[in-house]
Amino acid sequence: GDSDGGYSVMDYRAVDPKLGTMADLEAVAAALRANGISLCIDLVLNHTAKEHAWAEKARQGDPVFQDYYLMFDDDRLPRAYEETLVEIFPDNAPGSFTFYPDIGKWVWTTFNEHQWDLNWANPQVFLEMVAVMLFLANRGVDVLRFDAVAFMWKRMGTRCQSEPEVHVLLHALRAASRIVAPAVIHLEEAIVGPDEMIPYLGRGEHYGKEGNLAYHNSLMVQFWSTLASRDARLMTHVLGTHFPPALANATYATYIRCHDDIGWAVNDGDARAVGLDGPLHRAFLSDFYEGVFPGSFSRGALFQYNPETGDKRISGSFASLAGLERAEADGDPQVIDRAIDRILLGHALIASHGGIPLVYMGDELALLNDYSYKADPAHAHDSRWLHRPRMDWEKAAAATAGTTLAGRVYQGVRMILARRAATPEFHAANPILIVDTGDPAVFAFVRQAPAGAIVCVFNFTGDWKTLSADWARERGATVFVDALSEGHVDLEDDRISLPPYARLWLR
User: Fold this and answer.
1) Which of 188, 245, 319, 408 could form a disulfide with 366 if both were Cys (CB 3.0 to 4.6 A apart)?
2) Does 287 participate in catalysis according to the annotation?
3) Quick one: CA dihedral 221, 46, 305, 324, positive or negative?
4) Whether the Cβ atoms of residue 363 and residue 254 lie closer than 8 Å to each other
5) CATH number for the domain that contains residue 496
6) 365-398 burial string, b = 16+ CB within 10 Å, else e?
7) Percentage, residues of the chain above pLDDT 90
8) Catalytic site residue 196?
9) Helix, coil or strand: residue 144
């Protein structure tokens, strides 16, 4: 049946036989480690597959295992909870509860009917998952990506997302891991708004004791928002208001695309602060990246439209959303150049911001949308498969030459990552200060190091822009050398020229 792309887990301690065995996984982990690569795997904490042994025993009437899940004898409590819950998949799996006539129970199913939410208020569930976590660590897993953590705790009258108990549980999981396997990293997948994200890296009593890594969802959202609007004021406000200059015992996982859809996590208060209407801006972003907004360069697909909330999410590959698919179809070399510049702008942003930049497989080759998913009955209902193509190894082999479009992006990404590694100002201990450039089209931040600062500047438009050299000097630039290109930055009338979609790491 449907496995939600692997997120319906039947057995946390076994590998799908089609792929191999647990012994094979251990061998892979050892081979990766020998080559300086850490193995990261998902650990789905919010739910199991309905075929999991615990769920099977619950369906057979075992009260011990029924308490592993959230099961109800009638729909009174489910209806009360749903008054404030947000549907995750309104198109394919509306509602958050499923009735099973064979057992006469309603079961909490936040995501899909085949994914039963665990009852984390039951201490036995916590102990079971600690045992699973340590079992995987003993198999050689270096990084555990905790999936859907925001949904772990339920409270009547709330969205049942990011409740305080979630952070208590994640703190406790990390404490257990630090005792037994202290080198294991916890990556927390909490795709939430900017005001909710930082607690997943530890705040208050959990400061420095919760996640080691968390996805910087807001950086991703603001990249796409600014690219479409050509206006960095919202990005400057959000990143400068909600995120501290530095973190303790934790950092961000920065990214532009991943296996999932893009949800426009822009809250209404932040939008109002820069003169935008939140619902209208979110609708604009969906239309722009679906490719239906006049003048859009993007080709994406709608994912899960909720007419009650107006929520519309977007699927699509980095390259297609950034305009390369449409540019290739048009065949205009200058338009293609602009699309490649947008792609490299994103990679330069996540490489310099701070944290660990994550490049989604295929993005280094500018792989385009894969429409073949529509012919697969198992995937046709889910547009996220648009950006989950099989790896094109022939294109990867050819990319090393650097002459193809894929090669141009590949060589550009390699150069960005090489320069990042050679730039000590980007050390994780060095704070990041978001700064206003005075030009709405240009986003900037300063990485302040003991030996001096580096000013990172990004032009989010297809137009030439200039910045005052004095503005850069006041923020720490001294020699006017670009650490990214390693070239000297020439000044004209004491101003810095920024070509379309420029990315500049200014010393």
Assistant:
1) 319
2) no
3) positive
4) no
5) 2.60.40.1180
6) bbbbbbeebeeeeebeebbbbbbbbeebeebbeb
7) 92
8) no
9) strand
The one catalytic residue in 113, 147, 261, 439 is 147
Contact 250, 211 (CB under 8 A): yes
Highest mean pLDDT among 198-212, 307-321, 323-337: 323-337
Express each pLDDT in 435-450 by its tens digit. Answer: 999 999 999 999 999 9
Number of CB atoms found within 10 A of residue 349's CB: 25
In the chain, the amino acid numbered 355 is G
Residue 275 lies in a domain: no
Token pair 């890296």: residue: 201
Number of compact structural domains in the chain = 2
Residue 281 half-sphere exposure, CB side, CA atoms within 13 Å?
A: 25
Burial class (CB in 10 A: 0-12, 13-18, 19+), 143: middle
Rounded to whole angstroms, the Cα distance separating 475 from 436 reads 11
Distance between CA atoms of 72 and 312, rounded to whole angstroms? 31
Q: Is the pLDDT of residue 91 over 90?
A: no
Tens-digit pLDDT profile for residues 94-152: 999 999 999 999 999 999 999 999 999 999 999 999 999 999 999 999 999 999 999 99
Query: Which sign does the torsion angle of CA 374, 376, 377, 378 carry?
Result: negative
Q: Which of 78, 96, 117 is the last residue of a domain?
A: 117
Catalytic one among 189, 261, 290, 425?
189
pLDDT at residue 1 greater than cutoff 70:
no
CA distance 208 to 118: 26
- Model confidence, pTM: 0.94
Residue 78 lies in a domain: yes
pLDDT of residue 203: 87
- Res 340 pLDDT > 80: yes
- Report the 3 state secondary structure along 215-261: ECHHHHHHHHHHHHHCCCHHHHHHHHHHCCCCCCCCEEEEECCCCCC
Cα four-point dihedral sign 49, 54, 57, 63: negative
Return d(Cα 154, Cα 161) in angstroms, integer: 8
For residue 490, the enclosing domain spans 427-506
Tokens of 426: 């980007």
CA 289, CA 171: separation in Å to the nearest integer?
37
